[in-house]
Amino acid sequence: MDVRRRFPQSAAAANTEDTSSVGGRIQASDALPLPIRHTNLLFSALFAASLVFLMRRWREKIRSSMPLHVVGLTELLAIVGLVASLIYLISFFGITFVQSIVSSHDEDDFLLTPAPTAASPAAAPTPAPAPAAAPCPLLCDGSPAPGKMPAVTEEDEEIIFSVVAGKTPSYILESKLGDCRRAAGIRREALRRMTGRSLEGLPLDGFDYGAILGQCCELPVGYVQLPVGIAGPLVLDGRQYYVPMATTEGCLVASTNRGCKAIAESGGAASVVLRDAMTRAPAVRLPSARRAAELKAFLEEPSNFETLSLVFNRSSRFARLQGIQCALAGRNLYMRFSCSTGDAMGMNMVSKGVQNVLDYLQGDFPDMDVISLSGNFCSDKKPAAVNWIGGRGKSVVCEATIKEDVVKKVLKTTVPALVELNMIKNLAGSAVAGALGGFNAHASNIVSAIFIATGQDPAQNVESSHCITMMEALNDGKDLHISVTMPSIEVGTVGGGTQLASQAACLDLLGVKGASLESPGANARLLAAIVAGAVLAGELSLLSALAAGQLVKSHMKYNRSSKDISKASQ
């Protein structure tokens, strides 16, 4: 049963003078002081009656050769009723469609907007918001007395019952209620009643659910808390960075921090970004392999690249086509487009450019059948040799020379032991395992922790963790040269989860929040270099622990709870 959102008397009084606040926002269903189902029925009947009356009147005028623009009082009232009912019905039933358009964000908007600062002229003072409506009891953190459930208002109870009964889809609660936080609370209570499980321990309050609407997460019922540790300072390219890492693995941050210390005491690390290009590879099918080969030749012809670039680059002010790599499988053609995407990670941007090119190609190849915008030759969120060899996102190399005394005092091992271990474990061991891009000790650990802390797509850890760690002795075996080569780090500093408050704070700590106005893409490239530098520190520390035989001891110290489990379970 659909029920219109209502507010407590105190909240309604507080919002009498300012209906623009969230608590007092006017809804389409507030047109009449009736239950929403009765309001809908009334306006539907008014629309049908007005339309039928006007159609009959206009038919009579046409038959009697009367001008249509001459209207009487009854016709005028019918026109007003038709327009009013039409506006109401579009506002009510079209709200979900309108919401999806309004809440969609083009990556270009983020790329053109600098990160706000305290000294920025754009940070003009804003008027104090009006008092918010009283929160729904479902959203309160206060724990009820044992055996008692928190009080639920009559309006919320009706909505919960409708969701549980399947009459109201859970996914429309935000658009129907106009309050993302309240919608999450109602959805959570409906889930509790349907499953019999309370989700105790999963927090609900303290999160801005409006910030994720239409871009980060659907059907929210709470949020997961993750601790964030800081490793550093990481001395990279002459600058210091304190690296945020969100993880639940004990010893990870401490180990990375030790690697950062060893790097800093040896003069720091250096990095270079070799390539910066996001990819998308659609799959198309043609009538024959010969015809597919003709399309392949057309795409790879240098004289056609300029035209294809112009078509592709129309999708964004920052997307710039760099190249097209083609592969055939029978009469199927896979076209891997590579393009720069500014400070955005760029998957949406490159996808729009690819769609433009596909539409253009249909003119010369009308027999081309587009099977999928993504044909897995990209390759996204899957281990693939094409990323390992050709790169995807940012391709970065980071290196450092660790002094002999630092190896002994900080890392508690020796240079020959580290070189031998790296060859036997990371190179030979990974080869025996048939690894694809996994010639390292634990690059994925560091990449995942930084990705989660900074709002990156955690699933892209798969290819972003491709890494080969190299070690060799220098200066007659006294010093250690270590490097990590990571061909496909996929990061961005605008769009997606990077704009959430916690993740934006972590990006700001690194100095890469938002878009770079001086050099588009500079912030994203710096973030990729920091990720590689942190991986370098993590590899150095873990391999040292293995060489010194300290791995088990350190994990027993930092990765085991000292709490009394028997008491904690009671």
TrEMBL record:
Gene Ontology biological process terms in this record: coenzyme A metabolic process; isoprenoid biosynthetic process; sterol biosynthetic process
One Pfam family per UniProt: HMG-CoA_red
GO CC, alphabetical: endoplasmic reticulum membrane; peroxisomal membrane
Domain of life: Eukaryota
Metabolic or biological pathway: Metabolic intermediate biosynthesis; (R)-mevalonate biosynthesis; (R)-mevalonate from acetyl-CoA: step 3/3
Family annotation (InterPro entries): HMG_CoA_Rdtase, HMG_CoA_Rdtase_cat_sf, HMG_CoA_Rdtase_CS, HMG_CoA_Rdtase_eu_arc, HMG_CoA_Rdtase_N, HMG_CoA_Rdtase_NAD(P)-bd_sf, HMG_CoA_Rdtase_sub-bd_dom_sf
Family: Belongs to the HMG-CoA reductase family.
Protein name: 3-hydroxy-3-methylglutaryl coenzyme A reductase
